[in-house]
Write a structure and sequence with these properties.
By secondary structure, the protein is mainly alpha-helical.
């Protein structure tokens, strides 16, 4: 009865639904940079990252257990277990450990731009590990994108000891972990659905982050006596910006493809900078803005074929819509 009730509800056309979800995803991912920055005022970074995935794993696994048959969310093959391990190590533990460490000394806008390099780095790892061919134009695009990073960090003898530059490089390490982990996951080829795999990876990754937190000398008692703003930041990062956002992200990958879904990485900095300015008073430097535009130009070169095909598809759809509006109705 409940299923039929939901199926009878009117739904938006797929293109409008996915566009709305794309914007929502950018808002959720962008807000996570601000929430992380807020929580780091009271919490040590690796412990905070572990708490994020404690909450996200419980939320997402609980949802999957309630809504899906048991046979669909339990890992069964060797590839499933290896895939969960790879995702937990690279996509959860290394990614978030480095991201949270880096955000302690850099702005949400700069961090989101550096983190948005993961779609640029993925082709490099795919060429190395999967043998995917990389054209000279693609290599040029990667070079241009990396020059955008140089514009943001502006390396010099003094910046090698500057906390902000070190923070940005740590965030770049997080982006590299995401790119490498994604390629390794593709190479392993797990059989289970991506959403349960992500939920299990969150759970295992949370354990790895808590172990790492103890190894670097962080105290678990740091959570005692934290203020309401920090509690709100844990909830905001753990549920909307992780459990909900990851579910939207993997759904978009399935429906519109990974390349179009990963374009969100270039919308996230806009919302991260906006929310960082409104909520935290963080400024956006001119070099961060210029570097972001250079990174986007590099991505456009790497994915030029896909972008050209998508623009043609949108143009043909626009022509069809225009012609249908101009055709007069037939008289009876």
């Amino acid at each position: 009865m409940l299923r039929s009730t939901f199926s009878d509800r009117p739904s938006l056309p797929a293109r409008y639904r996915d566009s709305a979800l794309f914007v929502l995803l950018a808002v959720l991912f962008g807000g996570s940079f601000v929430a992380i920055k807020t929580g780091l005022r009271e919490l040590p970074p690796v412990l905070f990252a572990g708490l994020r995935f404690d909450l996200a794993a419980v939320t997402l696994l609980g949802y999957i257990v309630v809504t899906r048959p048991r046979s669909t969310w339990l890992p069964r093959t060797r590839e499933d277990f290896v895939g969960i391990g790879m995702a937990a190590l690279f996509l959860i533990a290394l990614n978030n450990g480095l991201l949270f460490l880096g955000q302690g000394t850099t702005t949400p806008a700069a961090a989101s731009v550096m983190y948005g390099l993961n779609p640029i780095l993925a082709p490099v790892f795919a060429w190395w590990l999967l043998g995917d061919r990389l054209s000279w134009i693609g290599a040029l695009g990667i070079g241009i994108a990396l020059s955008g990073v140089i514009l943001i960090v502006q390396p010099s003898p003094s910046t090698f000891t500057d906390a902000s530059a070190i923070g940005q490089l740590l965030v770049l390490g997080a982006a590299a972990a995401v790119a490498l982990g994604s390629v390794l996951l593709q190479r392993v080829g797990p059989q289970m659905d991506s959403t349960p795999l992500t939920a299990w990876a969150m759970a295992v990754g949370a354990v790895l982050l808590h172990v790492a937190s103890l190894l670097v000398g962080e105290s678990p008692t740091a959570v005692i006596g934290i203020g309401p703003e920090t509690i709100a930041s844990i909830v905001a990062v753990g549920i909307p910006s992780t459990a909900v956002a990851y579910a939207i992200y993997f759904g978009l990958i399935k429906r519109i493809g990974p390349v179009r879904a990963n374009l969100v990485a270039y919308v996230v900095p806009i919302f991260a900078a906006l929310m960082g300015w409104v909520l935290l008073g963080s400024s956006v430097s001119l070099w961060t803005l210029v570097g972001f535009l250079v990174v986007v130009a590099g991505f456009a070169l790497i994915e030029r074929v896909t972008i050209r095909m998508e623009l043609r598809r949108l143009y043909h759809r626009f022509e069809e819509t225009s012609s249908s509006k101009q055709t007069p109705p037939c008289d009876d």
